[in-house]
């Protein structure tokens, strides 16, 4: 039996509780590879939602209508390969809600995807 580890656990504030905004590039092409034509755009939106849930740690995700229109712009079959999104974790205004935070996913228009990295966006 392995000996138990000695040492104190670090107790800091949780990163999930703070309000945060970041920009990400999502490669949708990987997510919808091998999927039938009539399921590509709906699956792309589902994958964007899963990505936002994983990155921001909130189960409640709202997708902006401009992002939906950008994914569906070329139809159900021809989904764009990459898309730039802004994920912002906000506090719920409804105090009765069981979830304290939600994530808003919005579309960011870019000319090229070359050399783009994840960026923290200032709220100012």
Output the keywords.
23% helix; 24% strand; alpha+beta; 3 helices; five-stranded mixed beta sheet; single chain; 124 residues
Structural commentary:
The protein is α+β, with helices and mostly antiparallel strands and 124 residues long. The protein has three helices and five strands, in the order E-H-H-E-H-E-E-E. The protein has helices at 28-31, 40-56, 65-71; strands at residues 20-27, 61-63, 82-91, 101-107, 119-120.
Lay out the secondary structure.
Layout: E1 20-27, H1 28-31, H2 40-56, E2 61-63, H3 65-71, E3 82-91, E4 101-107, E5 119-120
Parallel strand pairs: 2-4
Antiparallel strand pairs: 1-3, 1-5, 3-4
Beta strands, count:
5
Cα end-to-end separation: 53 Å
Query: Beta-strand level of the residues, as a percent range?
Result: 15-25%
Question: Average pLDDT, to the nearest integer?
Answer: 89
What quaternary form is this?
Answer: single chain
Counted by DSSP, the helix tally is: 3
Which shape, going by the Cα principal axes? globular
Structural class, by secondary structure, is alpha+beta
Main sheet characteristics: 5 strands, mixed
Regions with pLDDT < 50 over 5+ consecutive residues?
Answer: none
Compact description:
The chain has helices spanning 28-31, 40-56, 65-71, and strands at 20-27, 61-63, 82-91, 101-107, 119-120.
């Amino acid at each position: 039996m392995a000996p138990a580890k000695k040492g104190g656990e670090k107790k800091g504030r949780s990163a999930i509780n703070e309000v945060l905004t970041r920009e990400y590039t999502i490669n949708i092409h990987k997510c919808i590879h091998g999927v039938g034509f009539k399921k590509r755009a709906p699956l792309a939106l589902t994958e964007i939602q899963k990505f936002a849930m994983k990155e921001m740690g909130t189960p409640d995700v709202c997708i902006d209508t401009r992002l939906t229109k950008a994914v569906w712009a070329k139809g159900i079959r021809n989904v764009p390969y990459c898309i730039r999104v802004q994920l912002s974790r906000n506090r719920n205004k409804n105090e009765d809600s069981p979830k304290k935070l939600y994530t808003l996913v919005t579309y960011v228009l870019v000319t090229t995807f070359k050399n783009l990295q994840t960026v923290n966006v200032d709220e100012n």
